[in-house]
What we know:
Chain A has 441 residues and is α/β, with parallel strands linked by helices. Helix content of chain A is 31%, strand content 25%. Chain A has 14 helices and 23 strands. In chain A, strands 1, 2, 4, 5, 6, 7 and 18 form a seven-stranded mixed sheet that branches. The first copy, chain A, has a five-stranded parallel sheet with strand order 9-16-10-11-12. At the A-B interface, α1, α3, β3, α4 and α8 of A face α1, α3, β3, α4 and α8 of B. β3 of chain A pairs antiparallel with β3 (69-71) of chain B, so a sheet runs across the interface.
Amino acid sequence: xxxxxxxxxxxxxxxxxxxxxxxxxxxxxxxxxxxxxxxxxxxxxxxxxxxxxxxxxxxxxxxxxxxxxxxxxxxxxxxxxxxxxxxxxxxxxxxxxxxxxxxxxxxxxxxxxxxxxxxxxxxxxxxxxxxxxxxxxxxxxxxxxxxxxxxxxxxxxxxxxxxxxxxxxxxxxxxxxxxxxxxxxxxxxxxxxxxxxxxxxxxxxxxxxxxxxxxxxxxxxxxxxxxxxxxxxxxxxxxxxxxxxxxxxxxxxxxxxxxxxxxxxxxxxxxxxxxxxxxxxxxxxxxxxxxxxxxxxxxxxxxxxxxxxxxxxxxxxxxxxxxxxxxxxxxxxxxxxxxxxxxxxxxxxxxxxxxxxxxxxxxxxxxxxxxxxxxxxxxxxxxxxxxxxxxxxxxxxxxxxxxxxxxxxxxxxxxxxxxxxxxxxxxxxxxxxxxxxxxxx
Amino acid sequence: xxxxxxxxxxxxxxxxxxxxxxxxxxxxxxxxxxxxxxxxxxxxxxxxxxxxxxxxxxxxxxxxxxxxxxxxxxxxxxxxxxxxxxxxxxxxxxxxxxxxxxxxxxxxxxxxxxxxxxxxxxxxxxxxxxxxxxxxxxxxxxxxxxxxxxxxxxxxxxxxxxxxxxxxxxxxxxxxxxxxxxxxxxxxxxxxxxxxxxxxxxxxxxxxxxxxxxxxxxxxxxxxxxxxxxxxxxxxxxxxxxxxxxxxxxxxxxxxxxxxxxxxxxxxxxxxxxxxxxxxxxxxxxxxxxxxxxxxxxxxxxxxxxxxxxxxxxxxxxxxxxxxxxxxxxxxxxxxxxxxxxxxxxxxxxxxxxxxxxxxxxxxxxxxxxxxxxxxxxxxxxxxxxxxxxxxxxxxxxxxxxxxxxxxxxxxxxxxxxxxxxxxxxxxxxxxxxxxxxxxx
Lengths: 441, 441
């Protein structure tokens, strides 16, 4: 079989790469060794966010109308099991979109035979271009082995059929804190262990405060400056040995923030350069072998689904023109914690570190009209201006990821304070906090 | 007592006018004859949106996790009563913000004595400037008298202690359809009567389709091209006589879309020109009497709360500089229906009417990753481009008002398709539909 492009991996990067090539007329195949959708669409952000979505809705409905809804214990117990109900629909959508674009799907691992040939299920596929989008898998630490029953990655944690009473999450990174938000809200007593000085290092302290307060209100223990020496399974429990303090004995351990690159089989036959850090690419996402490209986590540029999606959407242009990789200076980001954190552009600590002059405008969501009517008592909008120009826009609060989903478009547009004030914001919304932050300054 | 500025009315326009003047150092008083907050913060959009918020959350939580939550009949019955729980908090916030800004509050109607004097509770208040923000009240139709028990305005409809089994809403306008969404979702059998050819005339037909489908699925009857001749109360029922077809007999009638101007008492003493259409102003929001300004609904420019808010925020500048009223060409708008409709800029029908060339890009929310995980099966993003520049951005779907709360900032920024595609959108969000609409075209 002869193709113009073969994509290895059907996660966010691979899926959009395949669509990008196919809609421009390339005869395209996509290869998936596991289940369709990869980490991003299957085991990563989507299921976490979905569960938190439901939890948040129930909590908000309860807070507004306390006598109205009876929450049954059944609900929390079944939330995780229900997650898998959505998977067949995701798989169906992926299959349908591949089919509509006339992309051939091969299930199986296979391996490279040379820089233009891939062998899968005893079939030889030839192609002009390869796009490697094989992503990453959960990694482990020395002294800790993922057994997938007691010591879990996010993949197994999200498929638990029964909630433990207690759980240790190793890693106070974004993944770890998202899972801590989820499991503590489900009633699990969570302990987070972080080796650095701070939980969520590299994130504005104002922004994470409401999240940490929520975790602490749900009896979460946050240990910083602590390393894990080992984790051993004994009599249905895990003994977590720390470099200081007492050992922890718990039901489940979840290891977060560690990824290992999925290097495709037979890559040696192509002479593509790779390492444990992934497959290096130039600013066209091209490897050292000109007809082989790498998109998404595997190229090591940024381990984020929306970057993989964008790299995929533009891969046909990269192959055929001198399109470069994008400017990530206004990169929007979100953490799907409770409440959510989202925004784009600069953070205050970055400007402090760079000794840059800046101005901060903040407004609490509880003082917006919508926040008031929704009983929201935490979170805020935080705007950062440099020389009167908006260079950072951040929010901690419900729906932050949606409200600021297109905030990247606002950064870099050189919006002055008065340009923002001259604009009308829909009323009543939490988004109005942006204009209140400026008006009340 | 001597002031620099006296504001008449404490709704959105008056409240922000008072803050605008006070924070610039004006000694300021605000006068409210009824309850703090006016129509906007008390009887209008906020309570409707709050109830729809709760309903939507419950419906979504139910749809995601069917066995999880038990909805009790108690809930729907108590939703309206609970609305009033939020009112004291709104009043508290208004009072606190007025107090923090050192604004004197006078409760009572009072009247003008001349263009610099107002009499209230037997006190004479003198001022350099008056800002009239007295807003509007529900209006009525010939042959129909609001009795506030059987024939209601939105004010009484939102305070019903007991839901009727059936209800006739006169007016298929925004207010009427928002109330139809609310009451049909609460289980009331609603009939909407509209004298024009279409429900929600002046709104894109694509955008309203999911709303009409939702209403019809909840047994709402939509009558168009029908006028109401009279409504009479007989034996605890209302007989609604139509200009064609059968009479309707119903429990409650809600009259929507009709406003009458609240002209303050004694205005004749000031020589301010006014009519049934309100108090005309120049582009500084100044009346024919130079020290008297009018903001919000009363000046007849636009009957929308966010416009009143903006006019209020800028009133000090209008008084002291040559600030003009704003350009409303990228005006963002929202309808708090189920699902919500929101957006900014041009609509397709406007461009059709003007014979302008344009291009439409649409994407269904159910095919976004977030829509999939939230079980959203209706609604879409609709983008309008003229000569490759974004001139309209619209959405029908949950949270549309929040997702596009700042969309006015995007219109008029001359965003090309490729500028939007080059931007990263937070994943997974419904807002990603914007980039999918372009990618899949």
